[in-house]
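hi! just following up on the protien thing from before. the input was this:
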Amino acid sequence: MKRPDWYKYGWSLDIKNSSWTEDTENQVDFVIKALDLSGGERVLDLACGYGRHALVLARRGFKVIGVDITPAYIEDVTQNAAKENLPAQFILSDIRDVSFENEFDAVLNLADGAIGYLENDEENLKIFDVVAKALKPGGVHFMDVCNAEHARRYFPKKHWEVGEKSLALAQFEWDEITRRMTYGGWDIPYGEPAKRPGIVMKDADPVRLYDLPELEGILRQRSMEVFAAYSDYYGKPATHREIQLMVCSRKV
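and the predicted 3d structure came back as:
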């Protein structure tokens, strides 16, 4: 059985070669548009990974702080930001442990942003507490998660994605009682002999998923109001037919 703190382990810079990282510039474009950012705002990127979004934002003039629990990611992104003299700072920490208050114009949880990764519902809700506390009044939040309503209707299922460097395969299963998705993913690089995946579904990552009404309620309890929801980074409205759910909200 997967250990409850699985999210602390197994992350490496190999993720840079994953096909789903190839759309980063477009994703940043969409976030800026969806949140109506003008440039220069202070942005907090929670579970920033190796900083693929944070670095792009910093290059465009935003003042960025990124937080992640993986030492290799923070070391890599800190070095890359320093090389370019970017207005960005990166903190090695569990995102539950940061204590910003009324400091940021925007907070981001992208590529899940660790939402739903933690040990239980109580711990997962602490991420939303961090978001609401960190935002200035009127500040905005963008999250990109998987949609529980899609999982309920369409899982189990398999998915494949053709990237520039590799073919990505994924398998999804669903537990309605715990509202957790189990996800296993494998990348097959082009031009190399395919290898049998080292992960089987019983060892795959369990993630607590939320649907839009549940997220609206969670945010409302923290004085935040949803003002838009999408199902991709091209502006398609949120729908149960798509696995992705992007939610924009504002601290009121």
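Residues 188 and 211 are 31 Å apart (CA to CA).
The chain has two domains: 6-149+211-251, 150-206.
cheers
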